[in-house]
């Protein structure tokens, strides 16, 4: 396999995450603009699982990867023009119109279902890990650095963003895959339609008090109450937690 530096030229830093960095890059042979990231080897396996044919348009594509002494380099597709969902929401005034949020959530749920069918749990669903093509409003799920193989038994190690952690992790230091994913979807939806996170600290997650903005629709209110309130009482009820999101957005 030809060395990475012979195949790609690197440019400016596009972003820095918890497990690596994103650099602008171009393939020397044809000038195509992929991305490269320093990552853990597990992410390569997860991306290969979700990317094998037939791939899903809502999940970032791994083009190549290179092992170097100091890092694993991933060459990923780079949609253009695009923005992460955090910046996209801020460009819309800090929160999204409900029809836009509903469209994006539908795409995200379908992409996550694809990952789960391939045996992959993302574990860090948040605006910074979702790319939005600004011309078509289509999205791609990125950054599987916190991901793991999906399992029926409990997880006893948390990977992800603390504000998106489910209450069963805060209280018992364990969680199941689908309820935790549904919880993070609820936190994300709340952020998109209210313009702020529902919980900032562990004690807020346990209390489960939701301060809605005026104008949130009854449909979104129903989804959020079921996912972010009932989840505290019944953390293992996958049909309730994940099913509510799936039924509403698909």
What does this structure look like?
The chain is of the alpha+beta class and 250 residues long. The protein has two domains: 4-76, Phosphorylase Kinase, domain 1, CATH 3.30.200; 82-249, Transferase(Phosphotransferase) domain 1 (Transferase(Phosphotransferase), domain 1, Orthogonal Bundle). It is 40% helix and 19% strand. It has helices spanning 4-7, 41-51, 85-91, 98-117, 167-172, 177-194, 202-207, 218-228, 230-233, 238-249, and strands at 8-16, 21-27, 35-39, 62-68, 71-76, 82-84, 120-121, 130-133, 139-141, 148-149. The strands form three sheets. The protein has a five-stranded antiparallel beta sheet. α4 packs antiparallel against α6 (177-194) and α4 (98-117) crosses α10. The termini are far apart. The model is unreliable at 232-250 (pLDDT under 50).
With strands numbered from the N-terminus, the spatial order across the biggest sheet is 1-2-3-5-4
* E-strand count: 10
Strand percentage lies at 15-25%
- Quick one: biggest sheet? 5 strands, antiparallel
Helix residue percentage: 25-40%
User: How much is the average pLDDT?
Assistant: 83
What's the alpha carbon Rg, rounded to whole Å?
18 Å
The structural class is alpha+beta
The assembly state of the depicted protein chains is single chain
CATH architecture of the largest domain: Orthogonal Bundle
**Shape from CA axes?**
globular
Poorly predicted tracts of residues:
232-250
- CATH class descriptor of the largest domain: Mainly Alpha
CATH topology of the largest domain: Transferase(Phosphotransferase), domain 1
The CATH H-level superfamily of the largest domain is Transferase(Phosphotransferase) domain 1
Distance between the termini: 42 Å
Total helical elements: 10
Number of domains: 2
